[in-house]
Amino acid sequence: MAKLLVNLTSGKDNIDKATVAFVIANAGIAGGQEVAVFLSVEAVLLAKHGFADDIHVEGFKPIKELIETFVAGGGMVWVCPPCANVRAVTEDTLISGAVFAGGAKLVEFLSQGAGSVSY
User: Fold this and answer.
1) What secondary structure letter does DSSP report for 114?
2) pTM, whole model, 2 decimals?
3) Which string of b and e fits 60-72 if b means at least 16 CB within 10 Å?
4) What are residue 70's phi and psi, to 5 degrees?
5) Integer CA distances (angstroms), 80 to 5, 40, 107, in order
6) Which one of 24, 42, 66, 82 has the fewest CB atoms closer than 10 angstroms to its CB?
């Protein structure tokens, strides 16, 4: 199975990038790939309950729906632990399907042949 890593650093600071990242991630899932979205910097806030509820770019589905569809399709949402710590995102505030995963997990996935895109 092909693998795709979507690296996302933006949240509400650039909702276009955040939305497109999850559109691409969902396209990967629809194409039968194993897909992980790595959230770092401001993007870690997207993994916090309620944060993405009001993010909607015209012409696209709301980001909350994009994330839910991604997770329901088997996509993995990985949250950078140090970035989350700085922004008070904790285990008990994570959305369903999101887990903390650091650099080692990211490097392992890439070493298994995952292609990657960054937003």
Assistant:
1) -
2) 0.96
3) bbebbebbbbbbe
4) -60, -50
5) 14, 5, 13
6) 82
The domain locations on the chain are 3-118
Do residues 65 and 20 make contact, with C-beta atoms less than 8 angstroms apart?
no
> 34-39 and 76-79 as β-strands: parallel, antiparallel, unpaired?
parallel
Per the CATH hierarchy, to which homologous superfamily does domain 3-118 belong?
Answer: DsrEFH-like (3.40.1260.10)
Give the pLDDT confidence of 35-48 residue by residue, as tens digits: 999 999 999 999 99
Q: Mark out the alpha helices in 8-119 (DSSP H runs).
A: 15-30, 63-72, 81-86, 103-111
Closest CA to 97 of 77, 115, 112, 82: 77
Burial of 104 (0-12, 13-18, 19+ CB in 10 A): exposed
